[in-house]
Design goal:
Blueprint: E1 9-14, H1 23-35, E2 39-45, H2 47-55, H3 60-66, E3 70-74, H4 85-91, H5 96-105, E4 111-114, H6 118-129, E5 139-146, E6 149-154, H7 164-180, E7 188-193, H8 203-214, E8 219-225, E9 236-238, H9 241-266, H10 270-278, H11 280-289, H12 292-295, E10 297-301, E11 306-310, H13 316-331, H14 334-350
Parallel strand pairs: 1-2, 1-4, 2-3, 4-11, 6-9, 7-8, 7-9
Antiparallel strand pairs: 5-6, 5-10, 10-11
Helix pairs in contact: 1-13, 4-6, 5-6, 7-8, 7-14
């Protein structure tokens, strides 16, 4: 939790990240400070370009009322998705990533939001902001809509080769996020595996299961088979980054194909068209639940700050939602809670 009740939440926004930068990033940032009076935003990027973009914001009168909550820090270089993240961070010292994450590292802001290169966000967070003491690897946590609840998939792709201890930490961090941000009182955590029995899976999965079963930091419900990953059996689904990313991408593909098949089937005859018309609002609501725009972005858990990776094709609404998510992470003390959680896991290991 924040120590000073009236201390503003300072969030760095990479103004040049994403396909539609800087327009959507600037508009989303202004929309956010209009909504949240306790937030101050630092836009990082070429000063002249950002100032020009601010001048194009459609409601200048509304901006004038909140402009004191917005500041600009100049950064003349941009890291693209085509560049090698680590090499680009080393070469481009004045990039938006380096400049923005240095601000968080110096504790001049509590959060960093970017729709830019995923690799640069991860590498920068690791080497600039730094890991929470005791956390072996930060993890991407992707929210997925499942029946009756929202489920968090951790790791969603940051670490393809993992040790069992890391997966145990992913589960702990995901449980804390669901409790503090999504307000789930006692999050239930499952482990992706090829069967529900304890002895199922490869050596990594069996060792991770043993660690997760032993700990008392979060509620572990056991293995979850791939066919049940979207069945709403748990609040947090833990996996190594390779499996997690496969689950995430497969889910996106299945949902996309399902909507296409439904459309084709319903549009194939008159009865189907009538049914589609009657169920139009239901289909819109279902499609919206899978819309990444309202989620905003994917948190990178395990670093000394709130880091939110927004999708590369984010619009202004998505950037607004990513900023809202960062605010919620800071407001609810997620970093502090993860720090306490990893200390408890370490104590159990020593015992």
């Amino acid at each position: 939790m924040r120590t000073l009740e009236h201390e503003p939440i300072r969030i760095v926004v990479d103004a040049m990240g994403g396909d539609y930068a800087p327009k959507v990033n600037v508009d989303g940032a202004i929309d956010a400070i209009r909504e949240f009076k306790d937030v101050e935003i630092i836009l990082v990027g070429p000063t002249e370009l950002i100032e020009k973009t601010i001048a194009e914001y459609p409601d200048q009168a509304a901006y004038a009322e909140v402009k004191d909550q917005l500041s600009i820090v100049d950064a003349t270089e941009v890291i693209t998705t085509e560049e090698h993240p680590v090499m680009a961070l080393r070469r481009k010292k004045n990039s938006t990533f380096n400049v923005g994450m240095d601000i968080v590292r110096r504790k001049e802001a509590q959060a960093f939001v970017s729709a830019g290169s995923t690799g640069a966000v991860m590498a920068g967070a690791m080497f600039k902001i730094g890991r929470i003491k005791g956390i072996a690897r930060p993890a991407l946590a992707a929210p997925l809509p499942v029946p009756g609840r929202t489920m968090l998939l951790v790791d969603a792709g940051a670490n393809t080769d993992c040790k069992p201890e890391w997966i145990n930490q992913f589960a702990m961090m995901g449980s804390i996020y669901m409790n503090r941000v999504m307000e789930v009182e006692t999050p239930e955590v499952g482990l992706v595996n090829i069967g529900v029995e304890e002895a199922k899976g490869n050596e990594q999965a069996q060792a991770a299961h043993a660690l997760m079963k032993k700990q008392n930091v979060y509620k572990f419900i056991g293995n979850v088979e791939a066919r049940d990953t979207m069945a709403g059996l748990c609040d947090v689904l833990a996996a190594d980054g390779f499996i997690g990313n496969v689950v995430l991408k497969n889910t996106e593909g299945v949902v996309s194909a399902l909507f296409k098949l439904l459309k084709e089937g319903l549009m194939s005859n008159t009865k189907g068209k009538v049914a589609a018309l009657l169920a139009k609002d239901t289909f819109k609501g279902l499609k919206k639940s899978f819309d990444s725009t309202e989620v905003g972005g994917v948190p990178l858990l395990g670093v000394e700050g709130a880091v939110i990776k927004a999708h590369g094709n984010s619009n202004a609404r998505a950037i607004f939602c990513a900023i809202r998510q960062a605010r919620c992470v800071v407001e609810n003390g997620v970093v502090d809670m993860i720090r306490e959680g990893v200390a408890k896991l370490e104590t159990e290991t020593e015992e």
